[in-house]
Design a protein that fits this description.
alpha+beta, five-stranded mixed beta sheet, two-stranded antiparallel ribbon, binds 2-oxoadipic acid, binds nickel (II) ion
Length: 467
């Protein structure tokens, strides 16, 4: 029996997301500046585009926009990943998708923990891109062992966080007091620590192997490395950043500017140079510096079907193989032009995207469809129902991430020199073993949402006819 004193997982996630945002604003002041720029741009966009406002209102997603953000962490061991999975489950967040970043020269593989049910996404869509270090990709065996033993000695979770996860698993949730305590305790895992756990020499060797390895192995915990608000107009934010003293990366990752946004566009500002402390053998602290934390903004568009995604990947690859954008802004203009040219082949009109089966849509009954038209429902032909004005549709928002974009975000923060080659080795099976469970297939999930909306419409039409 459901204990009614337990509060919804969605509420715990919303509280956690707000607490993370407050913490990050204090730790990284430029993030606060970015939030106010995004709020301004979103407000102006909605004023300028009443049809966008209507659409967001109709799909019940206007309220979530200003709440919306994702974050990212990098974990060191499978045990950490398993515990993180259990923690996120308490907040109604589940692993969706597998991302292999070894192809892009980053020795991690990743998933995104996020809410999946429609109602949960509307309540609060907070997600965390979670990467697990792949020490197996490092060539230096001795260093690998040193990193492994440094990671084995740390516990990134507080004892109270561990206890509350067990309580939540036993009871099927947390009451209000425990939920508040849980949020406070879990926040500790994401906090920045200035004092490194390794000495300066090991840090340097880890850093030389790959900057990301030093970031994962050297500290007490997997500090949140960015928090990303969602904007309705990423080009306006990109232009507005320098005016506020924030330097964005040179090009926006993902598809070009379009009338009908697809998937995800992202841009970021450079990681901060932060002072850190190393403990020497004699117990005295010496100072050093580390770059890890940055800011990012995203604009979300329609979730694509496998066919749409294949077209996207093909066009992106065509643009990138003709011009490759450098991390320092080389070729930025030429790259944007190549991207626009390549994506001319991707229909930029909702009906074409729908007809060609490139994107996922949520169908609903049009207001005031005539009785005669409803007869057309008998054969359940969706295209005819749309033509007859009986069904309308809205794009289903892409809630996930893109590996090439993620690699671009990693790289712009690590510096171009980090673009090393690791053996390309996607290994979803291994990741799922490390996670202790399977990841949800994002395509299947979007397809189910679309099918459910169609079923509901057809059921409603058949009751109308029967009445
Ligand atoms: C994660 C980078 C990926 C995104 O939005 O694609 C990411 C990281 O730097 O740890 O957050
Ligand atoms: Ni991100």
């Amino acid at each position: 029996m459901q204990d009614n004193r337990l509060i919804p997982a969605d509420d715990i996630r919303a509280a956690f997301s707000a607490a993370m945002s407050a913490m990050y604003r204090e730790e990284v002041p430029a993030y606060g500046e970015l939030l106010s720029l995004v709020a301004e741009v979103n407000h102006a966009t909605l004023e300028r585009d009443p049809s966008m406002r209507d659409r967001l209102e109709r799909t019940d997603s206007l309220d979530r926009i200003s709440e919306e953000r994702h974050g990212a962490i990098r974990l060191g061991t499978a045990d950490e990943l398993v515990m993180m999975r259990r923690i996120f489950a308490v907040m109604g967040m589940h692993a969706v998708g597998y991302y292999d970043l070894s192809v892009a020269g980053v020795p991690v593989h990743s998933t995104a923990f996020r809410p999946v049910a429609d109602a949960s996404l509307r309540r609060n869509p907070f997600r965390v891109f979670t990467s697990l270090l792949r020490l197996d990709l490092l060539a230096d065996e001795q260093l690998r062992e040193e990193a492994r033993s440094a990671l084995a000695e740390r516990d990134i979770f507080t004892p109270e966080a561990r206890r509350l996860v067990e309580v939540a698993e036993l009871q099927g949730g947390l009451d209000e007091n425990d939920a508040a305590r849980f949020v406070r305790e879990v926040l500790e895992t994401f906090r920045w620590h200035e004092k490194a756990r390794v000495d300066a020499d090991l840090y340097r060797r880890l850093h030389d192997a790959h900057r990301l390895v030093a970031d994962v192995v050297s500290f007490r915990g997997p500090h949140i490395n960015h928090l990303t608000p969602r904007t309705l107009d990423i080009d306006a934010v990109q232009i507005g950043m320098p005016e506020r003293g924030i330097r964005p990366k040179a090009v926006v990752e993902g598809p070009p500017t379009r009338k009908c946004p697809i998937l995800l566009r992202q841009t970021s500002f450079k990681a901060l140079e932060e002072s850190i402390l190393f403990c020497g053998a004699d117990g005295t602290w010496t100072s050093g510096s580390h770059t890890a934390r940055f800011g990012e903004i995203e604009q979300r568009g329609i979730a694509l079907t496998p066919k749409g995604r294949a077209l996207y990947d093909q066009l992106l690859e065509a643009a990138r193989s003709s011009v490759s954008p450098g991390a320092q802004g080389e070729n930025a203009g030429a790259y944007v032009a190549a991207l626009e040219q390549a994506f001319a082949a991707f229909p930029d009109d909702w009906e074409a995207i729908r007809r060609q089966g490139l994107g996922y849509f949520r169908y609903s009954l049009a207001a005031g469809a005539g009785e005669a038209a409803k007869q057309a429902a008998e054969n359940g032909d969706i295209d005819r129902l749309v033509e007859a004005g009986i069904l309308t549709y809205d794009a289903i928002v892409y809630e996930d991430f893109l590996p090439v974009s993620a690699a671009g975000i990693f790289r712009s923060n690590l510096g171009d020199e980090e673009a090393q080659n690791f053996v390309e080795s996607p290994n979803q099976k291994l990741f799922e073993q490390q996670l202790g469970g399977a990841v949800i297939d994002a395509f299947e999930h979007y397809a189910l949402l679309e099918q459910a909306s169609i079923r509901e419409c057809l059921a409603a039409l058949s009751t109308t006819r029967a009445a």
